[in-house]
Amino acid sequence: MKISAGTIGRTVCLALALINQFLILFGKGTIPFAEDDIYQFVSMLFTAVATVVAWWKNNSFTKEAIEADMMLKEERIMKAKLESAKED
Hints:
Layout: H1 5-25, H2 35-56, H3 63-87
């Protein structure tokens, strides 16, 4: 499941708006954020998440690691074919 940047941005804006309304309701000051501040925060958050996701994945740089990835992929394909043949 992939959540789009737009969904995250809208959710953050909605959360800030709700918090702001509760602050107004209870007579407190409003949140002192400008639109640019929110945009920069969402952009930073998106960059951080993208960085973690990119490095969470298997990043093979050496020749041996790339070959091992290919062998693993082939093994998975063969296993899937064997399981499919058993079901038939």
